[in-house]
Amino acid sequence: MEYHQERLNAALDSSDRYVLHAIVKPLKKGLYKCRIAYDIEDIKIEYLKYTKRKVESLKLVYCDTIIYDKKYSNRDALNALFAKREMCDDILIIKKGLVTDTSIANIAFFDGVTWFTPKTPLLKGTCRARLLDKGQIVEKDIKVKDIKRYKKIALINAMIDFDIIASDKIEEIIC
């Protein structure tokens, strides 16, 4: 919760406008995603039934203009890129020659010793921030040509935490 609070505070340039711990009330049964929409004037909390998306393949999609540095409710730009996935399960967004994120998660690559996450993701996710703070992942510029050098790929977000989706045969997951 503290990482979500930090992101909210940064987005609003305020540390006392909303206190998530006081207003977010998790549901007792089932798996739900809590969506918080906010602006300076109001906050709206929704609980949406969550089903994990199965991701076994990623389509490289290039876009140098996309901006998604805050958790916007308008995902039109991401959705337009996602529509280019063809037969793949998700996309891996490449911006200015560097790997950023998928449409639903931050990403990490394992070289056999260390897990690396892109230094310049589209969105600095809360789970990613926690893993960086704990030293479980390290930031690094990751170029497209470097992807094949890694042994594993993992998706990172608050709902799936750290989910390894590819081991040993990275070339088989990249469409």
Give the tags.
175 residues, alpha+beta, 5-stranded mixed beta sheet, 3-stranded mixed beta sheet
Task: Write up what this structure looks like.
It is built from five helices and ten strands. With 175 residues, the chain is α+β, with helices and mostly antiparallel strands. It has a five-stranded mixed sheet with strand order 8-7-6-9-10. The model has no long low-confidence stretch (mean pLDDT 90).
Q: Summarize this, please?
A:
With 175 residues, the protein is an alpha+beta fold. It has five helices and ten strands. It starts with a helix and ends with a helix.
Write the layout of secondary structure elements.
Blueprint: H1 2-12, H2 20-23, E1 32-38, E2 43-49, E3 58-62, H3 76-82, E4 90-95, E5 98-102, E6 106-110, E7 115-118, H4 126-133, E8 138-140, E9 152-157, E10 161-167, H5 170-173
Parallel strand pairs: 3-4, 7-8
Antiparallel strand pairs: 1-2, 4-5, 6-7, 6-9, 9-10
- Give the H and E element order: HHEEEHEEEEHEEEH
> Kindly, what is the distance between the CA atoms of the first and last residues, rounded to a whole number of angstroms?
35 Å
Helix content: 10-25%
Total beta strand runs: 10
Mean pLDDT: 90
- Portion in beta strands: 25-35%
Shape verdict: globular
Rounded radius of gyration (Å): 17 Å
